[in-house]
Amino acid sequence: MSETVAFLKALTPESKTSLGAPQVQIHRYPYRVGRESREAGAAAFPNSRRRQDSSPNNELYLLDDGKMLNISREHFQIEQRHGNFYIVDRNSMCGTIVEGEIIGQGRNGGARQLNNGDVIIVGTSESKQVLKFVTLTP
What backbone phi and psi angles, to 5 degrees, belong to 45? Predict the structure, then answer.
Protein backbone atom coordinates (compact mmCIF):
# COMPACT_ATOMS: atom_id res chain seq x y z
CA MET A 1 0.00 0.00 0.00
CA SER A 2 1.40 3.39 -1.03
CA GLU A 3 1.61 6.18 1.52
CA THR A 4 -0.09 9.44 0.55
CA VAL A 5 2.34 12.35 0.31
CA ALA A 6 1.16 15.82 1.40
CA PHE A 7 2.36 19.28 0.41
CA LEU A 8 1.57 22.90 1.20
CA LYS A 9 1.59 24.98 -1.98
CA ALA A 10 2.02 28.77 -1.92
CA LEU A 11 -0.84 30.72 -3.51
CA THR A 12 0.49 34.25 -2.88
CA PRO A 13 3.91 35.87 -3.27
CA GLU A 14 4.05 36.29 0.53
CA SER A 15 3.43 32.60 1.18
CA LYS A 16 6.01 31.65 -1.46
CA THR A 17 8.56 33.84 0.36
CA SER A 18 7.70 32.16 3.68
CA LEU A 19 7.94 28.67 2.19
CA GLY A 20 11.16 29.53 0.36
CA ALA A 21 9.78 27.60 -2.63
CA PRO A 22 6.51 27.18 -4.54
CA GLN A 23 5.63 24.28 -2.22
CA VAL A 24 6.95 22.24 0.68
CA GLN A 25 6.47 18.57 1.37
CA ILE A 26 5.23 17.51 4.79
CA HIS A 27 7.63 14.83 6.02
CA ARG A 28 6.39 14.20 9.56
CA TYR A 29 3.32 14.74 11.71
CA PRO A 30 2.20 16.75 13.46
CA TYR A 31 3.43 19.44 11.08
CA ARG A 32 3.33 22.66 13.10
CA VAL A 33 2.95 26.12 11.53
CA GLY A 34 3.31 29.52 13.18
CA ARG A 35 4.49 33.10 12.87
CA GLU A 36 8.14 33.88 12.42
CA SER A 37 9.10 35.83 15.51
CA ARG A 38 12.79 35.00 15.54
CA GLU A 39 13.91 37.62 12.99
CA ALA A 40 15.78 39.75 15.51
CA GLY A 41 17.68 36.75 16.80
CA ALA A 42 18.49 35.69 20.35
CA ALA A 43 20.44 38.91 21.03
CA ALA A 44 17.17 40.86 20.94
CA PHE A 45 15.79 38.77 23.81
CA PRO A 46 18.60 38.56 26.38
CA ASN A 47 16.23 37.54 29.19
CA SER A 48 14.56 34.76 27.21
CA ARG A 49 14.20 31.49 29.09
CA ARG A 50 14.46 29.46 25.91
CA ARG A 51 17.82 27.78 25.47
CA GLN A 52 19.74 28.44 22.27
CA ASP A 53 19.85 24.71 21.46
CA SER A 54 16.15 24.02 22.18
CA SER A 55 13.85 22.50 19.58
CA PRO A 56 11.79 24.85 17.40
CA ASN A 57 8.06 25.30 18.05
CA ASN A 58 7.19 24.87 14.36
CA GLU A 59 8.29 23.05 11.24
CA LEU A 60 7.15 26.02 9.11
CA TYR A 61 7.46 29.69 10.06
CA LEU A 62 5.31 32.23 8.17
CA LEU A 63 6.11 35.92 7.89
CA ASP A 64 3.48 38.37 9.14
CA ASP A 65 4.51 41.98 8.76
CA GLY A 66 1.09 43.62 8.71
CA LYS A 67 0.00 46.37 11.08
CA MET A 68 -2.38 43.89 12.72
CA LEU A 69 -0.94 40.41 13.17
CA ASN A 70 -2.95 37.56 11.63
CA ILE A 71 -0.67 34.69 12.56
CA SER A 72 0.02 33.38 16.05
CA ARG A 73 3.47 32.07 16.99
CA GLU A 74 1.90 28.61 17.34
CA HIS A 75 -0.97 28.82 14.87
CA PHE A 76 -2.05 25.42 13.53
CA GLN A 77 -0.79 21.93 12.85
CA ILE A 78 -1.56 19.27 10.29
CA GLU A 79 -2.06 15.77 11.63
CA GLN A 80 -2.47 12.43 9.95
CA ARG A 81 -5.01 10.09 11.56
CA HIS A 82 -6.03 6.71 10.17
CA GLY A 83 -5.09 7.73 6.61
CA ASN A 84 -6.87 11.10 6.76
CA PHE A 85 -5.42 14.57 7.24
CA TYR A 86 -6.66 17.15 9.74
CA ILE A 87 -5.90 20.78 10.43
CA VAL A 88 -5.90 21.55 14.15
CA ASP A 89 -5.91 25.11 15.48
CA ARG A 90 -3.32 25.57 18.23
CA ASN A 91 -5.46 28.09 20.11
CA SER A 92 -4.61 30.94 17.72
CA MET A 93 -6.22 34.35 18.17
CA CYS A 94 -7.46 34.84 14.58
CA GLY A 95 -8.10 31.23 13.61
CA THR A 96 -7.60 29.72 10.18
CA ILE A 97 -9.98 29.75 7.22
CA VAL A 98 -10.26 26.46 5.31
CA GLU A 99 -12.51 26.52 2.26
CA GLY A 100 -14.47 29.41 3.79
CA GLU A 101 -14.90 27.76 7.21
CA ILE A 102 -13.23 29.39 10.22
CA ILE A 103 -11.33 26.90 12.39
CA GLY A 104 -10.38 28.13 15.84
CA GLN A 105 -10.38 31.87 16.59
CA GLY A 106 -10.28 33.61 19.94
CA ARG A 107 -7.94 30.95 21.33
CA ASN A 108 -10.75 28.34 21.22
CA GLY A 109 -8.96 25.70 19.13
CA GLY A 110 -10.80 23.43 16.72
CA ALA A 111 -10.15 20.90 14.00
CA ARG A 112 -11.35 19.98 10.52
CA GLN A 113 -10.53 17.25 8.05
CA LEU A 114 -8.37 18.43 5.14
CA ASN A 115 -9.01 17.30 1.59
CA ASN A 116 -6.82 17.48 -1.50
CA GLY A 117 -7.04 21.00 -2.93
CA ASP A 118 -8.34 22.74 0.21
CA VAL A 119 -7.30 26.40 0.39
CA ILE A 120 -5.99 27.55 3.78
CA ILE A 121 -5.92 31.23 4.77
CA VAL A 122 -3.75 31.59 7.86
CA GLY A 123 -5.50 34.13 10.07
CA THR A 124 -8.28 36.43 8.97
CA SER A 125 -9.49 36.99 5.41
CA GLU A 126 -7.01 39.91 5.29
CA SER A 127 -4.01 37.57 5.64
CA LYS A 128 -1.54 37.34 2.77
CA GLN A 129 -0.49 33.84 3.82
CA VAL A 130 -2.63 31.63 1.60
CA LEU A 131 -1.75 27.99 1.01
CA LYS A 132 -3.24 25.01 -0.79
CA PHE A 133 -3.16 21.55 0.76
CA VAL A 134 -2.20 19.02 -1.91
CA THR A 135 -1.95 15.24 -1.66
CA LEU A 136 -0.46 12.68 -4.03
CA THR A 137 -0.68 8.93 -3.85
CA PRO A 138 2.31 7.38 -5.61
Answer: -125, 70
